């Protein structure tokens, strides 16, 4: 048998039922116990303070974070850019609430400052400096704001540059659009107005271009935009989104009141719009204008394009937003319906600026196409939109007035006349 210790008396651990006895029996525990008492007392005091704090001391929620009856809150991505800033101006003028998100890689903080000065009242406009390629930032922006609709302009947008940096274009356009859609899905935003391009058509066999013209893009810019469109269309089927896809042609002009204009970064002038190059040549910033391609099958050998005034373009966006309906997709060309050659454009620019612009001719630019102009019948019929500013000389004159007083973009206005 195993030895039994049942009857053996065991020493019993001392018990303490008072603080004084604990102090005597285990002096090493005193500092730790007292520190716990201090922490507990502090936390209790903090809880009491928070519970008894008057409501007037608590920060009220931002007006941008709540849906307000009668107010449409629009997220404008790329709102510091040329087209995006003009769209934000129109939305604000029409009493929309606007949040601009831009990483300022192509946009201009000066345009934001102009808008903030024009619309200083709380709850009208907020600017968030963020990159749409950062999924965490995008999700946080959507979680902290109550958006009713998204106007998605943000994109790199130069045909020539896209042929040199194709991966950048697929990341910036296609991938970032996917991120915006994911955030919309996660936070229940149901309306999207998407900024697309006629570059998705490539070089069609027939003119003018209708919305039924096959999309066969010939450069990474057009391909990336077409991919983004396809993602939007697939996603909209399962989510019953209200989607408007606007494919624009060549944008010119500026705000008629001279508040905003086009101010591309100097390093991007080589890839920029022809209007910017014309104005730079007129201002003496560059020695002359480079026309690339004189052997196209067009009346004068230069490319033919459909030039749409930016004010007309943003009007189309606002009308698209007003007509957007859940579960429906609208796809529209936004143009004048009339093609103008590069040579015609340069002649009009010379007249608008009054400058004797030197013109040099070079071989074709990779990825360009000979002739592109729109048939705007569908957008006229369904959105009641028609281009109003179709006088090329007038649109260039308006843009020139802004350019000659803003030689450094959105810096201090200059009084010099040319």
What does the model show?
It is globular, with a radius of gyration of 31 Å. The strands form 4 sheets. Strands 3-2-1-4-5-6-11 form a 7-stranded parallel β-sheet, with helices on both faces. It is built from 13 helices and 13 strands. The longest helix is centred in the N-terminal third of the chain and has 23 residues, at 30-52. The termini are far apart. With 418 residues, the protein is an alpha/beta fold.
Brief summary of the model shown:
With 418 residues, the chain is of the alpha/beta class.
Q: How would you summarize the topology of this molecule?
A:
Blueprint: H1 19-25, H2 30-52, E1 73-77, H3 82-93, E2 97-102, H4 109-118, E3 125-129, H5 135-144, E4 149-152, H6 159-164, H7 166-187, E5 191-197, H8 220-239, E6 242-248, E7 250-252, H9 274-283, E8 289-292, E9 304-305, E10 307-309, H10 310-323, E11 329-334, E12 340-341, H11 342-353, E13 359-362, H12 377-383, H13 392-404
Parallel strand pairs: 1-2, 1-4, 2-3, 4-5, 5-6, 6-11, 7-10, 8-13
Antiparallel strand pairs: 9-12
């Amino acid at each position: 048998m195993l030895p039994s210790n049942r009857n053996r008396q065991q020493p019993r651990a001392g018990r303490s039922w008072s603080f004084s006895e604990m102090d005597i029996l285990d002096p090493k525990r005193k500092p730790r116990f007292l520190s716990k008492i201090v922490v507990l007392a502090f936390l209790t005091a903090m809880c009491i303070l928070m519970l008894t704090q008057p409501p007037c001391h608590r920060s009220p929620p931002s007006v941008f974070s709540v849906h307000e009856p009668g107010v449409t809150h629009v997220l404008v991505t790329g709102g510091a850019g040329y087209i995006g800033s003009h769209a934000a101006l129109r939305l604000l003028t029409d009493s929309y609430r606007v949040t601009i998100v831009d990483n300022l890689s192509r946009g201009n903080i000066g345009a934001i400052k102009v808008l903030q000065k024009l619309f200083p009242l709380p709850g009208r406009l907020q600017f968030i400096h963020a990159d749409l390629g950062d999924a965490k930032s995008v999700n946080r922006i959507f979680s902290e704001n109550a958006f009713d609709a998204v106007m998605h302009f943000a994109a790199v947008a130069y045909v020539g540059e896209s042929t040199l940096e194709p991966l950048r274009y697929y990341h910036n356009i296609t991938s970032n659009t996917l991120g915006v859609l994911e955030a919309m899905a996660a936070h229940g935003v149901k309306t999207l107005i998407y900024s697309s391009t006629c570059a998705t058509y490539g070089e069609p066999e027939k003119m003018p271009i209708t919305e039924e013209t096959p999309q066969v893009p010939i450069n990474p810019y057009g391909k990336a935009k077409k991919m983004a469109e396809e993602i939007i269309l697939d996603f909209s089927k399962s989510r019953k989104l209200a989607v408007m896809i606007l494919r624009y042609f060549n944008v010119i002009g500026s705000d008629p009141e001279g508040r905003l204009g086009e101010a591309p970064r100097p390093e991007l002038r080589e890839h920029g719009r022809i209007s910017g190059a014309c104005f730079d040549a007129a201002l003496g910033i560059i020695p002359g204008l480079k026309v690339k391609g004189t052997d196209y099958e067009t009346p004068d050998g230069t490319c033919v394009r459909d030039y749409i005034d930016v004010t007309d373009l943003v009007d189309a966006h606002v009308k698209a937003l007003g007509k957007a309906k859940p579960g429906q997709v609208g796809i529209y060309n936004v143009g004048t319906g009339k093609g103008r050659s590069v040579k015609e454009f340069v002649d009009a620019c010379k007249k608008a600026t009054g400058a004797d612009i030197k013109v040099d001719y070079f071989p074709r630019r990779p990825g360009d196409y000979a002739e592109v102009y729109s048939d705007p019948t569908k957008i006229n019929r369904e959105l009641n939109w028609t281009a109003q500013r179709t006088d090329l000389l007038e649109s260039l004159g308006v843009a020139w007035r802004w350019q000659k007083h803003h030689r450094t973009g959105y810096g201090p206005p200059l009084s010099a006349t040319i």
